[in-house]
Amino acid sequence: MKDEDTLVEEILQGKHSSFELLLQPYRQGFLNMAYRITGDSEEAKEVCQEALLKIFKYLKSFKKGRSFKTWSYKVLVNTSYDYLRNKKKFSRVIESQKAASVYVVPEIEQKIWINQMKEKIQNMLDILSPKEKAVFLLRDSEGLSVKEASLVLGCSQISVRTHLSRARQKIKAHFEKKQRAQEREEKT
Amino acid sequence: MRCQKIRRLLPLLAGDELPEKQMAKVKEHLKGCLPCREEYEKYVLLVRNTRRWLDENRVGWEEQEWRDIVQNAVNQGTKRKSVLVPWPFPRGWAYALMAGVMLLIATFIVRPPFVEHNGLTPKLGDEGEAKKQEVVSMTMVSKETGLKIVWFLDKNFDLEDNE
Description:
The structure holds 2 protein chains of 2 kinds. Chain A is mainly α. In chain A, 77% of the residues lie in helices and 0% in strands. At the A-B interface, α2, α3, α4, α6 and α7 of A face α1, α3 and α4 of B.
């Protein structure tokens, strides 16, 4: 298999079919990362599309010998947060329209369980700050090392460790709180 | 190290993210401290479970969907080419050239070279021209404030204008 620098060189020379080969190892990782940040699979796909376009467009600025993995994840994480920022602005406008038409869709039991599980994870991620969330996902979901995560986020390894430690402390506190509430409910 | 400091490092020890030096110190502390060890075990469980949950709840691409998205990026990326792409020199040069051209155009508009200027400033010319000069100017500059006053007088020394 060709290395990433060779594939980048081929794409820059006009062999666009190499672009898919270059991204192949990260296709699931990209979608998952975007999904965890946005919390919606359709939105995650939109973010991926935008990120892929940016990667293709700015491939010229990718320096040889550096890790394509960290560079491309950096583009993806930034695109995801840009998307969320824009969505926040847009959602303020349509919030009032949406509020009038809320209804619950009936679902089968298994689907409910899957949704509950997804909700649990999403709730767990929602208590984290954007940076803590990014560090936590890069490490625990995508398996990047502390060094790689620091390159993706453009911060020091110490900062990555601090955010990661804080994220886990928050998640632990969140679960402990939930557990205590559950125990109290069972007693009553 | 104190327990308080150790507790901050426990989430990292559980995820195997501590540098070796610190790891050894924390492990040494855990040998003699039961409450910290219990806390550490909780973190180990937490890291293991969250990683498993995240792994079990992954979303995936359908093959065709992925190909379409990659193809779309390539198509759009090749379509959105800059107008400056055929320019063989650094892009900054193109901007500098454009600025120069615009400055030239602006100069032509403000002071067209093909129109004779009949402004109040007397032109410097040969002696014959100087004799024909109808407007005389007188300038006074203040040494203290640098204020400059210019009087323009006609051939009868009547005040024409001042600046």
